[in-house]
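thoughts on both lines:
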Amino acid sequence: MHRFQYMMKFRSGVLRLLALISVVVSATALPAQTDTLPVVTTEVNVDLVSRYIWRGMDVSKGPAIQPWLAASWKGFSIGSWGSYNLTGEGCQETDFFVAKTLGFITVSVWDYWTFDDTSDLDFFNFRDESTAHLLEAQILLSGGDKLPFNFLASYMFYGDDPSRSLYFELQYEPNLNFADLMLFAGYQAKGDMYNPKKGFVNVGCTVERSIDITDRLSLPLSLSLVVNPADRKAWLVAGITF
């Protein structure tokens, strides 16, 4: 799940986007100095996933812990999301984002910084030809409760993707009483970040449900089936939110 799922939380009420890409948000309103000031909302969560799959790419090669935090005010949001391997090979990741929601439209810019423990990468290197940062412009259109469809457009405009990949994703969220369900289909229209050729790279579904442990304690669980038709690969990923 991914960073993208946070943005989906702002859509339905993200951090995530993205999410895909699963997250159950616990939000706490911080009291302002006076009743007339707008409320600042903060969100903090930690996810544990069996594997980090993002837009049809196998990033972690094993279990990963994914902390994230964000703050929002008057439709603006800012935050950070990370993914760190617990075992095995794969990339580590620390991301930052800013976003603005206007009605059914959320516009955001993400800074993805990917690294591994054996490389000597400089976080403060932002030179386009050598940086490990990847900057993305993202637009999310939400249909809301009456039209349970969402559309994501993503463009990698700077940094560690010389092909400047363009990605589109259509999502469908039917209204179910027993669980939250998202069906999604992601298509790489330009570039070679997700696959050397154009095509569908991220097709599947995510189911989220909270399991009651006690009267006051519940455990949010998620299960995602992700298929990359272009790479001819598939994964079944489980996640827990703390």
Observations:
- The radius of gyration is 17 Å.
